[in-house]
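Record now logged for everyone:
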Amino acid sequence: MAAPDPDRLAALLEGFAAVKLLVVGDAMLDEHLWGEVERVSPEAPVPVVRVHSESLDPGGAANVVRNVVALGGRCSLAAVVGDDEAGLRLAEHLGGIGVDPKGLVVEPGRPTTHKTRVIARSQHVVRFDRESEEPIARSTARALLRYVDAELPGVDGVILEDYGKGILTPALVRQVMRRAVAAGVPVAVDPKGELGSYRGASLLKPNVREAEALAGLRVRSPEDLDRAVDRMRRRLPACAFVVTRGAEGMRIYEGGGRGTDVHTVAREVFDVQGAGDTTIATLALALRAGASLLEAAVLANAAAGVVVGKMGTAVARPEEVRDLLPAAAEATGELP
């Protein structure tokens, strides 16, 4: 099998502009404090970080939305926030990129998931998490489903983005899947929950650790991974799988065959944060734009290669991805 043609990949990338997606899942606010370490505290053996700047960006499911928009697609978001400052800032950021924040359901008493990272000279010093992992209230789930019902007729695909923060409960996932399948809208899943909830999904994108948990098998080799995916296929027989493997790229599965390795582009890595969000956004956009699973994986590898070369919660722009397409296609090489 020949590697994908870069010109064909570039044409698919341009086609992202015609795609609209709905993302459902755990939205977060990512805060970064940037500074320098010049000494150790006299009060305790910890570094003293002199902060010189800070940034706030959409994270989690909201970062998936941000990536979809940055890549040229259109997107809406169904998620839950608290009645707090972080929730307001998240809504402001979404509005700033042209995404209507009306799909953010406010649950009183629940904090918006808010992660604060301290970065000193490109080194991640510490992270503070403000969040709840308790399941959302039934009234909140009903409000989310009302928004999903309103959005489904106008979208080309759905992404379920599960970070395990209590929003994508098994019951809610089953309801979203039932509605999407009935509407003929394909669903791509970045999974964290129980496998059976995703019945009807067209694509599952676990990393190796998540594949182990979902299949109940230890993965130490490509053959182990093939066995794990075979076990998951029994529960989701019509689903394609893309297993992300960090610096080793991805292993893709469709139909009933063995996995095919799609190698990543050799890049200097500054920060892997958010690369998974970029990957699922690109995969879903590419598949809805008419890409094969292999073409979608190569495009996603290129987009993730852009993001890991940046610090913080970053996105990939079409021109940046386009520049990497020849290298991404070459890295794939001839396939069996």
About this structure: Residues 9 and 153 are 28 Å apart (CA to CA). The chain has a mean pLDDT of 91. Residues 293-307 form the longest helix (15 residues).
